[in-house]
Amino acid sequence: MTIKKTIAIASAKGGVGKSTVCSYLATALSKSSKVGVLDADIYGPNQDILFDINDKNIELDKKNTKRPYTPKNVDNISINSLGFLLDKNAAIWRGPMLSSAINQIYEKTNWGDIDYLLIDMPPGTGDAYLTVCQKIIPDYVILVTTLSKLSIADLKRSEQVFKSLNTEILGIVLNNVHQSDQLKSFCLESENLILDRVEFNEKFIDLVYPFDDLELDTVFINTIKAIKEHE
Ligand SMILES: Nc1ncnc2c1ncn2[C@@H]1O[C@H](COP(=O)(O)OP(=O)(O)OP(=O)(O)O)[C@@H](O)[C@H]1O
Ligand SMILES: [Mg+2]
C-alpha cells in the first residue's frame, strides 16, 4: 500500500465549503490519478452524502490485521469516513478520543496504491488539526475560504496554525465568490497563492455524486496543476 501525497482540505471557519471542495476536487483528480478521501470531520461527516453512499457499514477484512478497514469504492475513488466508524455519540467526544479515532481510521484503512489522499477536515483549529499535522503529517494543506470578513479572519488563524505546525500551505481555494474589487484586493494582499475561485452555484445545494455537468477539471484547473507539479 502506498499513498504518494496526502493533502488536507481545511478552514478554521465552518460551512465555507471544505467538504464540497474536497469531493469535487477528488472527483476531478480521479480522472487522471488514483484518489482516496478520508472524511476526518468527527462532528459532521458529509462525504457519505456527497458521494451518495447508502451502506454506512465499514467492511472488515479480517485477514488483513494491520489494515482491516476496506474503504468504499465510488468509481475508483476510495472513501473512508469517521462517520462509518463511530456511533452518534462521537460528536461529544473529547480531544484524545477524537485524535485516536482519526489516527486509527487513517492507519487501519487499506487505501491500496493511491496518488492522492484528500482529508476533509472538521472546522476549527483544535485537536483534529494537531493529530492530522503531527501524526498523519500531510504533505500540504489547501485552505478554503469565502470572502466574508469573518471567513477571512478565520483564514488568517488557519494560516497561523499551519505555519506553527510546519505544514506547508499549497494555496487557497476561494469559494462562493464572484469577480469584484474586494476579490482583487484580497488576491493582492494574500500571503498564500490563490489557486482557484469557485462561484456560487445553486446546483451545489442538493447535488450528489456523480457531479457530471460541473466541468470540475476547469473549475479546479490551477489547483490540479499545483498538486501535480508539487514535488
Ligand atoms: N460555491 C457554492 N455554491 C453554492 N453552494 C455552496 C457552494 N459551496 C458550498 N456550498 C454549500 O454550502 C454548504 C456548506 O458547504 P460544506 O458543507 O462543503 O462546507 P464545510 O466547510 O465542509 O462545512 P463544515 O465546516 O460544517 O464541515 C453546503 O450546503 C454546500 O452545498
Ligand atoms: Mg465539512
What's a concise summary of this model?
The chain is of the alpha/beta class.
Question: Would you mind describing this structure in some detail?
Answer:
- The strands form two sheets. Strands 5-6-2-7-1-8-9-10 form an eight-stranded mixed sheet, with helices on both faces.
- The model has no long low-confidence stretch (mean pLDDT 94).
- It is 35% helix and 23% strand.
- A hairpin with an 8-residue loop joins strand 3 and strand 4 (69-70).
- It has 231 residues and is an alpha/beta fold.
- It has helices at 18-29, 47-50, 82-85, 95-108, 127-136, 149-164, 181-189, 216-219, 221-229; strands at residues 2-10, 35-39, 59-60, 69-70, 72-74, 77-81, 113-120, 140-145, 169-175, 194-198.
- The longest helix has 16 residues, at 149-164.
- The protein binds adenosine-5'-triphosphate and magnesium ion (MG).
- Magnesium ion binds at residues 18-19, 41, 46, 120.
- Magnesium ion binds next to helix 1.
Task: List strands and helices in order, with pairings.
Blueprint (H helix, E strand, L loop, with lengths): L1 E9 L7 H12 L5 E5 L7 H4 L8 E2 L8 E2 L1 E3 L2 E5 H4 L9 H14 L4 E8 L6 H10 L3 E6 L3 H16 L4 E7 L5 H9 L4 E5 L17 H4 L1 H9 L2
Parallel strand pairs: 1-7, 1-8, 2-6, 2-7, 8-9, 9-10
Antiparallel strand pairs: 3-4, 5-6
Helix pairs in contact: 4-5
The structure holds adenosine-5'-triphosphate (ATP) and magnesium ion.
List keywords for this structure.
231 residues; alpha/beta; Rossmann fold; eight-stranded mixed beta sheet; 9 helices; 35% helix; binds adenosine-5'-triphosphate; binds magnesium ion
